[in-house]
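A student in our group prepared the protein record below, which I am reviewing. I have pasted the whole thing underneath without changing anything:
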Amino acid sequence: MGDNFKCTKCGNEDYRKIGYRNGLPYCRACLGFQGQKAKYTKPFPKKASYNLNYALSHEQNKISKKILSHYISGDNVLLKAVCGAGKTEIVLKTMSYTIEKGGYVGFATPRKDVVIELFNRFKNIFKKNKVVAVYGDNCQELYGDIICLTTHQLYRYERYFDLLIIDEIDAFPFHENKTLETFAHNSCKGNFIFMSATPSQKVLNQFKKRNCQILNLEKRYHGYPLPIPKIIVRLFAFKLITLFFILKRLINLNHQIFIFAPTIEKCEQLYKWICPFFKHGEYVHSKRLNRQKIIDDFKNKKYQFLITTSVLERGVTVKNLDVIVYDAHHDIYNESTLTQIAGRVGRKIDAPFGEVIFIVEQINTQIKKCVESIKKSNQSLQTML
């Protein structure tokens, strides 16, 4: 039973995710996606002049024009751009064009924290347009010219977006999640722009088979290279002692620091160990109450260090930031995750440098791949220069 069942909502055909009620099949893969859906009404052209207080680099402007050209031609695009390349700024021209032609723009990303940051940025950039954020329990307002949302919320928008931008396509929980991928495809009636700094070769091959236009940008917008992680191997209590010395040195330099921990338990444990010796710190993870306020306070310099899980590995920009990854050898960290974490550093044009430090018990394959991929990107930059 269930062999011929295919969910019309999410496309699920896996019999293990099919249940039965009164002898009839139903899909358990998308059972939790219940709630109000946006009712499509034909939009009308609007003025969408976007306002940036800085100019795009030559490389950014060149890629931006290519993306717009492909969009006008009806092509889907995958933008592979190094961490700190300014992917969001690169797609602004196409977003503006879509709105002015009478279309809806969706900007989706797997993480709620990134949605909130994008929402605040777009409100300042597109001052003449309505921008809304849809995530978790923040779904009272579904309609806008630009809708920033988590990939989980795409189920609310069937055949809705004239332009759907999906950032961090290789991030959990969107990556290799067939349900969320189906929601994404069902929500777009126009064209896609997919974006990532770290797509795997498997992902690149998939997009090539779909005849998707793949554009590459190996240069950060300010032209400086990605920081190469410094790896420190320590065992047992020496890891913590090493962390203390590094933290003290960076605080004395008046830098702000992200300390990444592999699990919620380790995150809270590190905070308990560190806070008696270092003041002006906090911690965040996916279950921490008031997480956004703590992050905002950190950006406003209230705290010098923030211990965090991978919730802050992407989409967050802080000036004069250094990064420490505690137990970077943990199974939760792969090449992509470690590269994204390293990419948090040196993102500001007036602060393009910083330190990335991995404290490990051993150097594994994923750490080696991360370092090699960053070195390769930096070599490409030197070739361009």
About this structure: Residues 78 and 194 are 5 Å apart (CA to CA). Residues 365-384 form the longest helix (20 residues). The first strand starts at residue 18 and ends at 21.
